[in-house]
Amino acid sequence: MIPSIGFYKVDNKVSRFNVQKSSIVLPMLSYVIKHIDSDEFYIDISRGHNIYVTSVVEALTHLGEIKLLLNLDKILLDASLKNKFYLQIAEPILQNSDSPIKTYLQNLRIELSGKPYIEGKNAN
Known about the structure:
alpha+beta; two-stranded antiparallel ribbon; 3 helices; 6 strands
């Protein structure tokens, strides 16, 4: 479960959820570690609050670093064994439009620097 952010009004009562980014990154990282067992990861970041988008990118970066460290001996011998992480972005979907939706992929290259490196590439 990801913590809520922002202000919400229900029955004239305002609730404020004020969380730190790290409080969002950790549950996302925990989820992907528990539920995703793949060599390739595609995450759609087209929708959502900015803090959620940056948090999922950070969580994937941490996951990539963990996987890189756990398999470093194999990856040093064969770089093709390295996991592949992609961010997918779709153009806005217009109502009453019959045209295909254009999507873009960006490679999230994981290095041991602790920072993501994003390379652009058109998926269509």
